Structure formats: C-alpha cells, structure tokens
Amino acid sequence: MKIRSADVNVTSPGRNFVTLRITTDDGLTGLGDATLNGRELAVRSYLADHVVPLLTGRDAGRIEDTWQYLYRGGYWRRGPVTMAAIAAVDTALWDIKAKAAGMPLYQLLGGRSRRGALAYGHASGQDIPELLDSVRAHLADGFQAVRIQSGVPGLGPVYGVAAGTGSGGTRYDYEPARRSADGPALPVEETWDTRAYLRHLPRVFDAVRQEFGPELPLLHDGHHRMTPIQAARLGRDLEPYDLFWLEDATPSEDQAAWRLIRGHTTTPLATGEVFNSAYDYTTLISERLIDYVRSAVTHTGGITAMRKLLDLAALYGIKSGLHGPTDVSPVGMAAALHLDLAIHNFGIQEYMRHDPRTLEVFRTSYTFQDGLLHPGETPGLGVELDDEAAARFPYTPAYLPVNRLRDGTVHDW
Ligand code: GCO
Ligand code: MG
C-alpha cells in the first residue's frame, strides 16, 4: 500500500486547526493533527513545502521508518514546528494501518487496559463563588475530576479563567488564543502578580474542599509563572488540599529547577505541554522529579514518539496526563485516547470540550460517559474531516496572550 497523495487542510471553526490527510493508492485515508496554537501557518508550510513531496510513493505501512526518515533525514531536529509536522504524518499512518486492519487503533497498541480514560475538565471563576458554580456545572455534566483556576483579587483577567459565556453557551471552557475576528488582532496583554496569587490560591482550594469534600480529584495549572522557590512554597501550602497535581509550577525547560520544588513538597507535579521531545524529560523522568507527563501527541512527534516517551516514564513509575486543550484538534484528541486506553501507566486525560462548530468539521466517534472518555470502536482513529464544512471556516489569525508584571516586565503565563 503506497501513499498516493497528502494534503494539508487549514480551517477555523471557532479556532484554527491544521490537519494532514494522507491517501493511499487503494483509497484509504488517514488524518493527523498538526495544530500549533498561534503559529499554524508555519507548520502548514513545513508540511506542504518540505514534507509532502517526500511522502508520495512511500510504503504507507512503514511507520517507524517514515518517522526516522523525517526526524533524522531532515538533519534539523526537534522544535515544535518540526515535531508537529512529524506527528501529523505519524498519526495519519497509524490511522491508515488501523483502518486497513479493520480495528480501532487502540487494538494495534496492545488492546485496552481499562474501561475508559478518566478525564478532567476546566472549572474556573473570576472569584470563588463563580468557581464553585463552575465546579458544580462540571459535576452535573459527569466529570469526576476538575482543574480549578481562579481570578486573583486586585488583578484583571487571568489566563486560564473563562472570561464570559464561552462558545456553545458553556461558561467553563476558555479559548486559549484570541482570533482577530473576535477582537484585537495582536496578543491580549494581561497583568500578573505572583505574591497576590500565592496568597489567594490556598483560600481557593480551601473553599472548594469545604464545598465538595475530600474525594473529588482537584488539579491546578501554575502556567510556568513561579520561580522554583515560589513553586516549592505553593506546593507545600497546598498539601492539606490533596491535589491530583500541580501543573507547570515553573518554566519547564529548566529541568534541574524541579529538584528544588521536589525537595520541598509532596504535592504531585506535572509538566511537559510545551515540550516536543523525550529528551526534554530526561532529568525529570530519570530523577523522578515529576509524577505526570503532560505532552500532546500533536506536539511530540505523534503516536510512535509518545509511546516511547510513555514507556520510558513507566520504567520510573511516572504516569500520563496527556495535553487535551481545544487547540489539540479532535484528531489529536482521538490519538491521545487510543494511547490512554492501551498503556498501563495511564494517569488522567485533559478534556476541554471543542466548540460545536469544530465538531461539525471533525466527525468524532469518541464518547464521554460517567467521567470517562473512550475512543470508540470505529476502525482507525475514528475521526473524519468534512472538507465542505471545513471550507466554510477560513483561517483567521490568532495569538495567545502575553503576560506582564505590574511594572511592565514580560512574564511567563
Ligand atoms: C492546558 C494549557 C492550555 C495551553 C494552550 C496553549 O493545561 O490545557 O495550559 O490551555 O495554554 O494549549 O495553546
Ligand atoms: Mg497547562
């Protein structure tokens, strides 16, 4: 079975997505997600201008060889653009292989290890009462784990907190990037004060535990905003509230910094959504500095690379917590779900539900029931792209926000 053609689709049903479709000479198609939030056209060009010409005529069944060919053959390694492009090819080839076998992809990955993947949703509020309402709405929708983010007294809008009624009438799913169609074309700028945040967050957790009790798994995203010693203090202050994890406590690329955090707190730690290679994790995993791997299949070289990374983590007792924001497309989400079902060291899956317009363009077979996600039994990934629907939503430039301290200094967000 040879690759006949490959096409890159860019569409914006509520937000931008980049999707690769590979077609074989016997008419099978496979999809791969290559969405890189705020930098979509760079990946489109990498794929269309540099990768697609290499694919035509290749054996569609040689997934490992194609991965190595694109990774080693390109000479320039790693980086989010390269690895998102490789991920799209890899995922599309797995989709084709599973369709050819007539099986849902998780069967080719070893079959299921569990009934479904425990998912966490994003509860948030500008203040504590609003957050409590949002947690309640998530529980009513069947979530059995929630991430909680809150506004900070004295600060304006904070990234990760829904700003108003979201798409589809829901209030709890914020959209990471602002599109020029919905507001200013340039990045929104937010103001940040870490000391105010550190004072407020334990109160937030206290209120949520008082209202919902000790059982509910609670997560929190620190969004790389703290120094290692601030993160250590926060981890310690939150210990009474028994977090499932504290995510991105400090900028993740400084792997050695996590030794300091780990040395001070027993709050479980997660990181990796901005990583794109297993090499980004070598210190974190081999020294057991984290508890959960947060990468996205879409940004880390696809199913082939993610499986190796998760197997490495498993050797050190570290679990998965794959990235699943709205900027991972339904194709990338499905890829994560097949892995979640198959691997032994599954931890939890992030689930920020997509806009209804997105789900008009991407027809999915995955399900969410009793707090668990399941990829479905359709052969392949179980996601199809409706080209006509996609064409109704042309690309719209979008930027992620920028964060500044009160004195104007650019800060992590
Ligand atoms: C998360 C995230 C996202 C990212 C977004 C950036 O934990 O889900 O931090 O909201 O900010 O994916 O594109
Ligand atoms: Mg995050």
Please explain how this structure is put together.
With 413 residues, the chain is of the alpha/beta class. It folds into two domains: 3-104, Enolase-like, domain 1, CATH 3.30.390.10; 108-377, Enolase-like C-terminal domain (TIM Barrel, Alpha-Beta Barrel), CATH 3.20.20. It contains 13 helices and 20 strands. The chain has helices at residues 40-55, 63-73, 80-101, 105-108, 128-140, 194-212, 228-237, 257-264, 282-286, 302-315, 330-342, 356-361, 387-391; strands at residues 3-11, 17-24, 29-33, 117-125, 146-150, 178-179, 189-192, 218-221, 245-247, 269-271, 292-293, 319-322, 348-350, 362-364, 367-369, 372-374, 383-385, 398-399, 402-405, 410-411. The strands form five sheets. The protein has an eight-stranded parallel beta barrel with strand order 4-5-8-9-10-11-12-13, surrounded by four helices. Strands 1-2-3 form a three-stranded antiparallel β-sheet. It has a three-stranded mixed β-sheet with strand order 7-19-20, with no helix packed on it. Helix 3 (80-101) crosses helix 10, helix 6 runs parallel beside helix 7 (228-237) and helix 7 runs parallel beside helix 8. The chain starts with a strand and ends with a strand. 51% of the residues are buried. D-gluconic acid (GCO) is lined by residues 37, 176, 221, 273, 325, 327, 350, 400.
